[in-house]
Write a structure and sequence with these properties.
Layout: E1 15-22, H1 27-45, E2 50-58, E3 61-69, H2 76-90, E4 93-94, E5 97-98, E6 103-110, H3 113-119, E7 133-140, H4 149-166, E8 173-186, E9 189-202, H5 208-222, E10 234-236, E11 252-253, H6 258-261, H7 282-299, E12 305-312, E13 321-325, H8 334-344, H9 349-356, H10 390-396
Parallel strand pairs: 3-6, 9-10
Antiparallel strand pairs: 1-8, 2-3, 2-11, 4-5, 7-12, 8-9, 12-13
């Protein structure tokens, strides 16, 4: 006899959830920053440049590789100059990784003509997607920027530490650091931290307890009142010493922190990295568009949370699918919502790029502390964080 059991899927209301962040001085983030600085350099010289540049960093060495199509003024020598400036801005002047002393190798060449013919507009053909793939966007009401709380506060801790380090207020700390935050949820909402982990590079004259006391006020400043964990769950440099850090302690690669860059694991991820890519690459631009749409859905009070998936084929302009999931919190049928979103925004690669103004040098600033949940800048940076579709979306419904 065969017995079939029906399993009901019930969303958890009470649970612990953890997300991590890494600082601008983490080896992978150094690589992201350099790659995005190269993108900005090309776009500043020519907004229609095509860029796909990866960076490897290790002990006093940076290696650039990839494909580009842009003005001759962005030479290999210029790319080396940009890489050094990015590393200097992060703050690396250490024996094992120094912006001035490091070797920089540039192995960047012209974009494949096979890729170019699929992406470029010609005749009656519109600009196509730079690759196939799926991209996700997400928004929820856990924070005022409509981001999941664990990743939002993990970023904020490290950003506060970095500001203090650059200002000379947190002396003795190095550029490389990581944070990890576990939050307790009750009735589906975060209510406090059960553990906080911060690991930060420091000078040799500081011991573990001294580093902990330097870090403590910045954690307490970031977390909402009453959210701080108990002392025995507050871990700072739990291995003890963290003197050797950055690319001298561990090699870094572009695109290796994609969960840190997005939603900290609270939402799906399509798998594509952002940094080092110009906005014709839908890995980047469509992920920004998906976040933009999801955020506007939640800002319009059409749902408490919203996940959007977009799918593309290389060389094809229209999205293959626009999936919307409001996790049972929406007030509008999801098929109708999908149709309305496509009505208020052209989701072709060209449409996304033009709607969000992405063909500008705005990317180096996004390389650390998350691409989402940021404040839109006057020059167009983080344009995907605007909520200017709220009224058009309501009208379309």
């Amino acid at each position: 006899m065969v017995v079939f059991l029906e399993v009901l899927s019930v969303s958890k209301e009470n649970f612990l959830f953890t997300s991590e962040s890494v600082s601008e001085g983490h080896p992978d983030k150094v690589s992201d920053r350099v790659s995005d600085a190269i993108v900005d350099t090309f776009l500043a010289a020519d907004p229609v440049s095509r860029v796909a540049v990866e960076t490897l960093c290790t002990t006093n060495r940076v290696v650039l590789a990839g494909e580009v199509r842009g003005p001759d003024s962005v030479t290999h020598e210029k790319m080396e100059e940009v890489a050094r400036a990015a590393v200097k801005d992060i703050g690396y002047e250490q024996d094992g990784f120094h912006w001035e002393k490091m070797d920089v190798e540039v192995h960047v060449h012209a974009q494949s003509v096979d890729i170019a013919q699929g992406v470029d507009a010609s005749g009656n053909k519109d600009e196509g997607a730079g690759d196939q793939g799926i991209m996700f966007g997400y928004a929820c009401r856990e924070t005022d920027v409509l981001m999941p709380a664990p990743i939002h506060y993990s970023h904020a801790i490290l950003e506060e530490l970095a500001k203090a380090r650059h200002a000379g207020e947190a002396t003795g700390l190095g550029p490389d650091s990581k944070s990890q935050l576990t939050l307790k949820y009750e009735n589906g909402q975060p209510v406090g931290a059960t553990s906080v982990v911060v690991s930060t590079q420091h000078s040799a004259d500081l011991d573990q307890e001294a580093v902990k006391e330097i870090v403590r006020p910045y954690v307490e400043k970031v977390l909402p009142a009453g959210w701080m964990c108990t002392e025995d769950e507050f871990y700072v440099n739990p291995t003890g010493l963290f003197v050797i850090g950055g690319p001298d302690g561990d090699a870094g690669l572009t695109g290796r922190k994609i969960i840190v860059d997005t939603y900290g694991g609270a939402a799906p991820h399509g798998g594509g990295a952002f940094s080092g890519k110009d906005p014709t690459k839908v890995d980047r631009s469509a992920a920004y568009a998906a976040r933009y749409l999801a955020k506007n859905v939640v800002a319009a009070e059409l749902a408490e949370k919203c996940t959007i998936q977009l799918a593309y084929a290389i060389g094809v302009s229209k999205p293959l699918s626009v999936y919307v999931d409001t996790a049972g919190t929406g007030s509008i049928d999801e098929d109708k919502l999908s149709a309305a979103l496509q009505e208020v925004m052209d989701l072709s690669p060209r449409g996304i790029r033009e709607h969000l103004g992405l063909s500008r040098p705005i990317y180096a600033r996004s390389a650390a502390y998350g691409h989402f949940g940021r404040t839109p800048d006057e020059d167009g940076g983080f344009s995907w964080e605007k909520t200017d579709l709220v009224e058009p979306l309501k009208a379309a419904l």
